[in-house]
Design a protein that fits this description.
Blueprint lengths: L7 H22 L5 H13 L8 H29 L19 H9 L2 H12 L4 H8 L3 H19 L21
Helix pairs in contact: 1-2, 1-3, 2-3, 5-6, 5-7, 6-7
Length: 181
């Protein structure tokens, strides 16, 4: 048995939160078939190295970040590979994604969003993470997350006929360095 499998934190995380991790991965990928693989990759990356976590919540947050990062990285690599393979140039981006849940229209719209925009929308609205936590999870600035969420909501609102807004997001104080007073 490997060291990672003997880790009680990993066992507890899988026992209590595996379903939630797969649900997050499913919303990101749009595929029930590839979501468990994404979770598995993230768990291996996180627990394959000697790391200790102060709590189950800390381990969960770290794995969620790994899932989000791996999704964005995977889409980026896939996009580069498709661009370099001229024989597959006619494929539509997102055409391979399966429907998640019962809302085919929403899943089709999510599949059309760029990966970072999709990840920000899913983390903010499905996972209900605040902008600051979403930024931390995706290694982005808060301003970038707000922009991605704004752009994603514009596209989704236009297609769905809704009026969701990020105007209620908390403002971040910006400190200028070296400014003369």
């Amino acid at each position: 048995m490997s060291k990672a499998m003997a880790d009680p934190m990993l066992e507890e995380l899988c026992r209590q939160r595996y379903g939630h991790l797969v649900a997050l991965a499913t919303m990101l990928t749009g595929s029930r078939e590839s979501a468990p693989d994404l979770v598995q990759e993230a768990l291996i990356a996180v627990f394959g190295k000697r790391r200790s976590f102060p709590s189950l919540n800390a381990a969960d947050a770290y794995v969620r970040r790994a899932i989000s990062s791996r999704f964005v990285d995977g889409v980026r690599k896939s996009s580069r590979r498709r661009a370099s393979e001229s024989g597959f140039a006619s494929q539509q981006p997102g055409a391979h994604l399966d429907v998640v849940g019962d809302d085919a229209e929403l899943n089709a719209l999510l599949a059309q969003l760029p990966p970072r925009v999709r990840a920000c929308i899913v983390l903010c609205y499905v996972e209900d993470l605040p902008i600051t936590e979403t930024a931390r999870a995706l290694s982005l600035s808060e301003g970038s997350v707000k922009r991605y969420v704004h752009d994603g909501l514009q596209l989704l609102n236009g297609a769905l006929g809704t009026t969701e807004s990020v105007d209620d997001a908390p403002r971040v104080a910006v400190e200028t360095r070296g400014a003369q007073r």
